[in-house]
Structures are given as C-alpha cells and as structure tokens.
Amino acid sequence: MTFQKLQPQISSIITDSQKNRDEKLLAVCKLLNENVEYYNWVGFYFANHDTKTLHLGPYVGAETDHTVIPFGKGICGQVAESNANFVVPDVKAQDNYIACSLTVKSEIVVPLFVNGVNIGQIDIDSHVIDPFTEADERFLEFVNQEVAKLF
pTM here? Predict the structure, then answer.
C-alpha cells in the first residue's frame, strides 16, 4: 500500500473516539507494520526530559530489552538530542548503534514534536539494507504530526 493511501487511515485511527491514546498508537504501529513490507519493527519512544531518558511506548515487532534509552545513546538517543530525523542505511556501519536483533539491517527514527518540544519519536527497524527514502521521512513526519494531536 502506498504512503498516500495510508495517510487517511492514520488520520482515522487518531480521531477514533473508541480508543485511548495507547490503543491508537498501537493501531498506528500495526498499520505500518502490516502495510509497509520493510517496516519490521515499529514503535514509539517518549522522552522524560527530567531524567534525559526515552521510554518505550506501544510497538509491534520482536520484543526488545531497550525499554529505557539515555539521551545520546544509540540512534534513538541521538535523535532525542539532535531533534532531527536519522536514517541509518546499514546499522553495522554505525558506531553508536544499540543492537536489538541480528535481523535488523537498517533503521529510521523521526522525532515527535508537540508545541515545538521533542516529546518522543517513531522508530522503525528493517530487515533490509538501505530501504528508507525521503518518501519514508516525509510520510513518518506526517504520521508524527497526526500523533501529536493526541498530546
């Protein structure tokens, strides 16, 4: 399914009055995981600015031990500090990568802003080397703009 066709489905999930916030976030993860072939792990991390840590929120994919990530550590931790998208075509080439699974080959992380503050991020792992394009970045920015309405 194309990103363009997924956008109204994302918006529909966000406005569903029958679900609470975590249920909506999980539904977004499921939609992306099921409809984008190379999105093999999809999840949200949320920032605690007092402790400078990220905390795992709803996700779909293999279980992870990385439920709390310090700012600056790994790709997610770097995005918490840089406030910028981070696309990793090949995780083996990254010095500051936190290995989640041997099957993960690439990663994309896009920050989630609410009122100009980076409150978290969407994190996607792929079992394919270098699948992410600028179209993925723009689509995930859209997803996060919709998710921001929940906060």
Answer: 0.94
CA angle 35, 38, 43 (to 5 degrees): 75
For residue range 74-105, what is the model confidence (pLDDT) as tens digits? 899 999 999 999 999 987 776 655 656 678 89
Pairwise CA distance, residues 100 & 91, whole Å: 10
| Token duo for residue 109 | 């992380």
Whether the CA torsion 39, 45, 87, 83 is positive or negative: it is: positive
Distances 150 to 17, 99, 107, 115, 140 between C-alpha atoms, Å? 11, 30, 25, 12, 16
Beta bridge pairs of residue 86: 109
Between CA 10 and CA 100 the distance in angstroms is 27
